[in-house]
# Entry
Amino acid sequence: MKKQQIFFLAPANYRSLSQRHQAFANLLALAGYRVIYVNPIASNGFVVNFHKEKANLTVLDLRLPFRAANFPWLQRVVAQICWKILKRKFKIGWRQILWVADPAMAMLVLHQWNMVVYDRCDLHGFFPGQKKSAWKSYEQLLFHKADLIFASHQALLDGIPPECSGKAHLVGNACNAEIDCRKSSGCLAGANRPIKAVSAGAHFEWVDCLWLKMLAKNPAIELHIAGVGRGKDFEALVGMPQVHFHGKLSQQQLFDLYYRCDVGLIPFKELELTVAVDPIKAYEFAAAGLRVWSTPVPGISGHELVDFRLESEADANAAIESFSLPADDRRVARWPERLQTILDRMGRLQSD
# Structure
């Protein structure tokens, strides 16, 4: 029997670096579902562009006159326009599934779907520029209208209303299958070169650039920064003569950088936003054979893949000294097993 169609409302552009959403969409397509991946809606214009990315997966780019995520009454209009476009292009009926990873499009759940899945991957409303009350209203609608809720962190599950908790499940993050399970060359204490440490991703307000500067000043560490950033602290960091700034890299270039390094860094600040984080980078670093060091934020306290939580220069020196010890063997979760947890629960719901 032909698999159902899934309308996948994503908070990340399909063509950007692969993360939770692209991984799930690709695997759903491989499983036989017909996936319509809706990129984050852009504003200032009107463009509807469909592109078949691969078998069973079509990417939809939408540019609408406005996007008003901080104003639910206006965002309702955006959702309605999106609904009309989808309805005109595709035959929406009882067999369609709505997969929501972008809460701003929550009002699409008010239409008829065979199943609604809400993938809660972040603490929405706490990103810079987001109005907390607006995002809270979107999530409340999703909590009550979704048939299944999946969260990437226990703290995200804890924030779901008790009356909705029975349909909520923990599905953590994982790493890409493309990363080789290899050990880096390593840097034993006393070797002729410093430990190569890498921080990758968006170095925005939630990243502790002062912590990274502390590591960069240590002569035993060679710091590599990949990705983008903003703010005076970031500019000062990448301007340091001992810091290697690689800028924005492709997926393969990023993995190649990992293979040349010894340690992967998780440099989060302690903020409301980082109370509920399961860093994909931790899985990628560990799969590439790197040790993983992080700031001591509660959100990743106890994370099984983090080797050291560094608060001070003394902690950094202790971590450096530990490099002479063998690394523990660790099993790193991959995206297919995470998706299988979701598919099992979707199948169970459909068979009820």
Q: What stands out?
A: Residues 195-324 form a domain with the Rossmann fold fold (CATH 3.40.50.2000). Confidence is low (pLDDT under 50) at residues 185-190. The chain is about 30% helix and 20% strand. The first strand starts at residue 5 and ends at 9.
